[in-house]
Design a protein that fits this description.
The chain is mainly β. It has one domain. Helix content is 9%, strand content 48%. It has a 6-stranded antiparallel β-sheet, with no helix packed on it. Strands 1, 2, 3, 4 and 5 form a 5-stranded antiparallel β-sheet that branches. 19% of the residues are buried.
Length: 147
C-alpha cells in the first residue's frame, strides 16, 4: 500500500502550475529584468499566486507579492513611465516599481500608467510575455489638399 502512495505523489503534483516570464529591460544583458512568477500550489486549487520580481543586478533584486486570481484570468499588463519606472496592472491591482533601486513606489493615478510595454499571461500551463504592438505611425501626405 505504501508503494501505491509513493507512485501516486508525482501524479498529484503533475497538475500544478509553476512558471515565470520575463521582460528584459536592457536587451544587451539579463541583469535588468522584470519577471512575473505564477504558482498553483495544489492541482485542486483554481487560483494562481502571482509575484513580481524587479531585478537590476548586481545592485538589487526584490520580490513583491501580488493578488491571486483564477488561472483562466491571469493577465498582467506592463507599462513604462520612463526613467526605469514601470507600472504593473493585474485586474484592479496596480503597482509601480523603480527598477534601478527595486523599490515599490506609490500607486500611480489611473491615467498615469505610462506607455504599454506588453502583457504577461498564462498559456495553458506556461507563463508568457507578449510585447505590446507599436501604435500606428501617423499618415504622411497631402491630406486635405485639393483644387
Amino acid at each position: 500500500m505504501r508503494r501505491f502512495w509513493i507512485l501516486l505523489t508525482p501524479l498529484l503534483l503533475a497538475g500544478c502550475i509553476k512558471g515565470s516570464a520575463s521582460y528584459y529591460i536592457d536587451d544587451a544583458s539579463n541583469d535588468h529584468v522584470i519577471t512575473v512568477r505564477a504558482e498553483q500550489e495544489y492541482f485542486w486549487k483554481k487560483d494562481i499566486t502571482l509575484t513580481l520580481v524587479a531585478s537590476h543586478m548586481p545592485e538589487c533584486q526584490r520580490v513583491f507579492p501580488m493578488s491571486g486570481m483564477p488561472a483562466d484570468e491571469v493577465s498582467v499588463e506592463l507599462f513604462s513611465n520612463g526613467d526605469d519606472v514601470y507600472t504593473v496592472r493585474s485586474g484592479t491591482e496596480v503597482m509601480q516599481v523603480d527598477t534601478l533601486s527595486c523599490a515599490l513606489l506609490a500607486e500611480p493615478a489611473p491615467k498615469a500608467l505610462g506607455q504599454p510595454v506588453g502583457t504577461f499571461f498564462l498559456d495553458e500551463k506556461t507563463m508568457m510575455f507578449e510585447k505590446a504592438t507599436a501604435p500606428p505611425a501617423p499618415a504622411t501626405g497631402a491630406a486635405g489638399a485639393g483644387g
